[in-house]
Backbone:
C-alpha cells in the first residue's frame, strides 16, 4: 500500500520559514518523480514545485521561484520543500504527490499517488 505522509506545516509570520517533509512508503521512491502542490480555501489545487527521480532536475511555479527549494533523499524515501520568505498568500494545504510520467509535472492529473496534506498558515 502506497503512503505519502506530509509533515512540517504550521503557523508562521510573514518572512519566516518552514521545512515540509513527505515520507514515502510502499513504492520504489527513487523511480518516481515527485511534486508539491497546494490548495487554498475556495481555490483549485496549484503546482508549487517538482523534482525528477534523480533529484537533479527541479521545476518551480513562478510565484515561489527564489523562495522555495525542493529536494529529495532517495536513501530515506523522503521529499522536502524548504519554504523561505513566506507570504500570507502562501497560506494553503500543501500536498506531495508521486508519478512515473515524465512530462507536464505541473499538472495534478499526471500524478498517481497523493498525501493527505499539511497546513501552512502565514500571518501578516
Residues:
Amino acid at each position: 500500500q502506497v503512503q505519502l505522509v506530509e509533515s512540517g506545516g504550521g503557523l508562521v509570520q510573514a518572512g519566516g520559514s518552514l521545512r515540509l517533509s513527505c515520507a514515502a512508503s510502499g513504492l520504489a521512491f527513487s523511480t518516481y518523480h515527485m511534486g508539491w502542490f497546494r490548495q487554498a480555501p475556495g481555490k483549485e489545487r496549484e503546482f508549487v514545485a517538482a523534482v525528477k527521480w534523480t533529484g537533479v532536475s527541479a521545476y518551480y511555479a513562478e510565484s515561489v521561484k527564489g523562495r522555495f527549494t525542493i529536494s529529495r533523499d532517495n536513501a530515506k524515501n523522503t521529499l522536502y520543500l524548504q519554504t523561505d520568505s513566506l507570504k500570507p498568500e502562501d497560506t494553503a494545504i500543501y500536498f506531495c504527490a508521486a508519478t512515473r510520467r515524465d512530462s507536464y509535472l505541473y499538472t495534478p492529473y499526471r500524478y498517481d499517488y497523493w498525501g493527505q496534506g499539511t497546513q501552512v498558515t502565514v500571518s501578516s
In short: The chain has a mean pLDDT of 97. The first strand starts at residue 3 and ends at 7. Residues 13 and 86 are 8 Å apart (CA to CA).
